Structures are given as structure tokens and as C-alpha cells.
Amino acid sequence: MEKCRVCRSIYDSIEKIITIYIPGIITLILGVIITVEVLSRQIFNHSFMGIVDIVEQGVMLLVFLSIAGIQTTRSHITIDLLPEKLKHRRSGPILDCALLVGSILAVGFLLAEMAVYSCDIHKMNLRTLVLFLPILPFAIGAIIGILLLFISLILQFKESLFRARSFKHVGIDRSESDPNQQS
């Protein structure tokens, strides 16, 4: 059990670096690049070549790398709304497990599609339009983000399944609440 906790701690540290810190750095760099580009256009009437390529690939990395962090911290609204409302009912943990199974299937499909797409990128040696940067490293970054999301969903499913198994319905003792009932 201790070994499992250590592995989970290591995974959480790696996931935090890849899904929170790296996207944060990418966001900062993209903000600086876009600000410099806008100022350059306004002040010097000059645009840097390839800014669109850099920003386009950077945003793709930002989105895919941060997906797992958003899922882990449960910073989204749509998926959490229903399980949070039902968590004290018997159907809450079961619904949570069902939502996670659906999410795991969807993300598994997305992971497979991204892997096929990356193979096609490698075969065709695709590059960006202006700077001719290879797209494959960015696609691999997206696969890493999707893989972390997949692992995160599996771990959350395991925890939800454990909660569903150990769920005890906290009911009201009717003998205490009903004064008309005789003992």
C-alpha cells in the first residue's frame, strides 16, 4: 500500500509539472510574443515572420497539456455539476463512475486518433507553413497531454468505484423523528 502511495505521489508531481507549470510557461511566452508582435506592428510598422506558426503550435500544446490538470483539479463545471448534486445519494457514486467510463472511452478514442494522426505526420514529414517547423514534436506533446488525461480518468474511476462500494446511505432514524410512533 505504501508503494502505491509513493507511485501516486510521483505521478502527481510529474502530472503537475506537465499540466500546470509547462502550460503556464507556454502562456507567458505566448503573451510576450504576441505583445511584442502587436507593439512592433504599431510602433515600427513591421511584423515578424512566423509568429502565427509559433502561436498556433503553442496554443495547441497549451490546450492538450493542460487538459489532464483541469480534469484532476476538477476545475470544469459541466462534468462536475450532476455528480456534486447527487454525491450524498446512492446514485451519485454510480453516476460518477458511469460518467468516468464514458470519459475514458472518449479519451481512449481521441488518444488512438491522435496516435494515427502523428504517424501520418511522421510519414508525410508535415511542417508549418512559414517557418517550416516540424509538427511532429507538437503532436507528441498533444499525445502526452491526452495520455495524462487518460491516466487521470482511470485513477479517478478507481477512486469513484471505491467510494461507490463503500457508500453508506446516511438515513434518518424514523423512530426519533416521528413523535406519533409508539415503541
Would you write up a description of this structure?
The chain has helices at residues 2-44, 51-73, 78-86, 91-124, 136-165, 174-177. The protein is mostly helical and 183 residues long. It has one domain (2-168). The model is unreliable at 170-178 (pLDDT under 50).
Number of domains: 1
Approximate strand percentage: under 5%
Q: For the CA atoms, what is the radius of gyration?
A: 24 Å
Distance between the termini: 47 Å
Poorly predicted ranges (pLDDT <50, ≥5 residues)? 170-178
> What portion of residues is helical?
over 70%
Layout of SSEs?
Elements: H1 2-44, H2 51-73, H3 78-86, H4 91-124, H5 136-165, H6 174-177
Helix pairs in contact: 1-2, 2-5, 3-4, 4-5
Write out key terms for the chains shown.
single chain; 183 residues; mainly alpha; 0% strand; elongated
Care to give the gist of this entry?
With 183 residues, this protein is mostly helical. It contains six helices and no strands.
